[in-house]
């Protein structure tokens, strides 16, 4: 098989004659020789950074050689970079610092070489590479949520709650960048086995930018963050949050109602000019029940009802509880199930028959079946998508009073339930995707794309260096199911 190198081969370039107008810079820090990797950085940016560094007295090498002490890359994965260095003609790699652009940026800000810390280092977790690394350069916390153990015990809730509010507000404002930044910071802090007690505890941690650090420092100093307090007092945030808490109401609809001057659900319902969808009508009708948390016992009770009903339709069907309850959470907003059959094609009629059975039992309050748009010939999506293309059903089910937790005024409690029916070939990927959490899924796909050169979504895994991975047999399905189960349990229960 022909191997195409990820990086271009290292060639010694002929030195071009200097032009009469070229600047000669004084080298102040001769002990530090920096080589900037052009790949992904681009030639124009590399040239700009080279001139900037030289103007500040830094020694920048145009060619990679044994004279280089620091290799600096931007947006390159550690795996690719180390493979490239190993294939070069360099001698002892242990004498070279392989760093992210963040170290270079800090040097430029300080006007001198700054000390190399763990957070600056690009480290590949591989025995072949580890022999070239000093123990002090190994990162203990990964930038990817899918490589961190996250238990149910959160030692930094005061910070993660603040980030959740800021992320939600950014999402309401359709500011994707800040939203992701706050979500990543919250995910990171949740994974830590200790509480953050000072700014020093943040050293070496990835995923923390200036904004997120400012929030943490604010809380450490004053016990709360002024930025978070401003959001909580913001009229638009409060109103949009209220409106989107209604089943069937998205951000655009909530924004539309807010711009009309509505501030309460009663004002919205009193306007005869608004034509509610079937889903929104159910959302208002059962608002008190479905806006309340669903506990684990209620989820298990719903699970028993669903499994018993499905078994009447297809005795060999596979019914799996997913979402937060599969991760071990004690409460959530709804209950999610994946349902399929060991034989390909038989899953297509499962949801319709399940809905008919639940209707006959008199416990189905609302349902909306969305037919499958899944296309086996399409590659996995490069971007994170919250919803997949399998057949699914959004429903509201009655749960008897004696099975519901807390005080229930009537004889039953309305519970939001989602059903998804993927083909058995794609069940494992759907299981992993529906287990969550949202940030875990984002980082899992980002890791697959950047570190493994693969595309992953709820439907399939595509290896860009090989071929589309199709799983057709029950044995293969079971093996993948075990892998997905092990992954989610390892990540969340540690």
TrEMBL record:
Q: Tell me the cofactors it needs.
A: Mg(2+)
UniProt-listed GO biological process terms: DNA modification; double-strand break repair via nonhomologous end joining
Q: Which keywords describe this protein according to UniProt?
A: Magnesium, Metal-binding, Nucleotidyltransferase, Nucleus, Terminal addition, Transferase
Q: What is its main location?
A: nucleus
Instruction: Give the enzyme's EC designation.
Output: 2.7.7.31
Q: Which domain of life is it from?
A: Eukaryota
PANTHER family hit by this protein: DNA NUCLEOTIDYLEXOTRANSFERASE (PTHR11276:SF21), DNA POLYMERASE TYPE-X FAMILY MEMBER (PTHR11276)
Name-wise, this protein is: DNA nucleotidylexotransferase
The organism of origin for this protein = Lepisosteus oculatus
């Amino acid at each position: 098989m022909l191997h195409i190198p990820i990086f271009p081969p290292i060639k010694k370039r002929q030195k071009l004659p200097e032009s009469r107008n070229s600047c000669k810079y004084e080298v102040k820090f001769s002990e530090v020789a920096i080589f900037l990797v052009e790949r992904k950085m681009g030639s124009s940016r590399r040239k700009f950074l080279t001139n900037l560094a030289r103007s500040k007295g830094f020694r920048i090498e145009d060619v990679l050689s044994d004279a280089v002490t620091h290799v600096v890359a931007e947006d390159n994965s550690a795996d690719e970079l180390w493979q490239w260095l190993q294939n070069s003609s360099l001698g002892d790699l242990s004498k070279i610092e392989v760093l992210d652009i963040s170290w270079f940026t800090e040097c430029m800000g300080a006007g001198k070489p700054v000390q190399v810390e763990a957070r600056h280092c690009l480290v590949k977790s591989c025995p072949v590479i580890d022999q070239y690394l000093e123990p002090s350069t190994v990162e203990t916390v990964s930038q990817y949520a899918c490589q961190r153990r996250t238990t149910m015990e959160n030692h930094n809730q005061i910070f993660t709650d603040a980030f959740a509010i800021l992320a939600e507000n950014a999402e309401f404002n359709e500011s994707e960048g800040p939203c992701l930044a706050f979500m990543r910071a919250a995910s990171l802090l949740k994974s830590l086995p200790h509480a953050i007690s000072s700014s020093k505890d943040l050293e070496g941690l990835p995923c923390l930018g200036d904004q997120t650090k400012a929030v943490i420092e604010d809380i450490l100093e004053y016990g709360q963050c002024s930025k978070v307090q401003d959001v909580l007092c913001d009229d638009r945030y409060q109103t949009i949050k209220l409106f989107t808490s209604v089943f069937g109401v998205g951000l655009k609809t909530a924004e539309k109602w807010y711009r009309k001057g509505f501030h309460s659900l009663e004002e919205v319902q009193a306007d005869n000019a608004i034509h509610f969808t079937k889903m929104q009508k159910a959302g208002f009708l059962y608002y008190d029940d479905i806006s309340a948390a669903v506990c684990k016992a209620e989820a298990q009770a719903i699970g028993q009802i669903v499994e018993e009903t499905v078994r009447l339709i297809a005795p060999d069907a596979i019914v799996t509880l997913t979402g937060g309850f599969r991760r071990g959470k004690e409460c959530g907003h709804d209950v999610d199930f994946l349902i399929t059959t060991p034989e390909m094609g038989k899953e297509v009629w499962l949801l319709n028959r399940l809905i008919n059975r639940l209707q006959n039992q008199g416990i189905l309050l609302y349902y909306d079946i969305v037919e499958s748009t899944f296309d086996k010939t399409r590659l996995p999506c490069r971007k994170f998508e919250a919803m997949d293309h399998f057949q699914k059903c959004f429903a509201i089910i009655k749960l008897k009073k004696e099975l519901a937790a807390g005080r229930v005024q009537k004889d039953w409690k309305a519970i939001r339930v989602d059903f998804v029916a993927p083909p058995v070939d794609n069940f494992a990927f759907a299981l992993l995707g529906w287990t969550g959490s949202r940030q875990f899924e984002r980082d899992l796909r980002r890791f697959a794309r950047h570190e493994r050169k693969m595309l992953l979504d709820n439907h399939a895994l595509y290896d860009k260096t090989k071929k589309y991975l199709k799983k057709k047999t029950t044995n293969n399905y079971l093996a993948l199911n075990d892998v997905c189960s092990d992954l989610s349990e390892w990540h969340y229960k540690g």
